[in-house]
Structure formats: C-alpha cells, structure tokens
Design goal:
The protein is an all-alpha fold. It has helices at residues 10-30, 39-58, 66-91. 0% of the residues are buried.
C-alpha cells in the first residue's frame, strides 16, 4: 500500500492564512455596525467561510478521498439542521 500524499505549495498556505486574517479583520470591522436581525447571519456567514477554508486546506479535506469529503459534508449538513431548528425555536419564542 502506497502512502503518497498531496504536496501543497507554501504559497497556498500563505494565501489562505492571509485570507483568514482579512476575514478576521472584516469580522471586527463589521461588528461596529448594527444590522438589526441580520447581525447573527452576517457573523455566521463569515465564520462558515473561515471554517471552510481551514477544513479544505489546513485539514487537507480538499485533497482527501471522496469518503472523507462525504463525512465532512454530512457533518455540515447535520450542523445546518441543528442551526435551523435552534433558530426556529429562537424566532418563535414569545418575548416579554
């Protein structure tokens, strides 16, 4: 059995690192504004983009087998279900 691994150029790691720094700065910048009910979706969108970049490149999911990619996608799918039902509960509560 061969244990050949995909070699990722350092340029890719530095590019992803730079993007993560920019997105973190964007998160800090955007936190100064009030978007009303859109505060949470905006923050979660940026966080999901950052998490996706980390998983794809730093955790090498992009270069993994289809089975590994399937498990990662199923994790995102079930996390989406969790968020959906949590938000549905939160939005339908009667606040005093």
């Amino acid at each position: 059995m061969s244990s050949a691994h995909h070699v990722v150029p350092l340029r890719i790691y530095f590019t992803i690192f730079f993007l993560l720094i920019v997105l973190t700065g964007f998160t800090v910048f955007i936190s100064k504004f009030d978007f009303g009910v859109m505060n949470l979706p905006v923050a979660l969108s940026i966080a999901i983009v950052k998490a996706t970049l980390i998983m794809l490149f730093f955790m090498h999911v992009k270069y993994s087998s289809r089975l590994t990619q399937l498990f990662v996608l199923s994790g995102f799918f079930f996390m989406g279900i969790l968020f959906f039902f949590t938000f549905c509960d939160y939005l339908t509560r009667a606040w005093n």
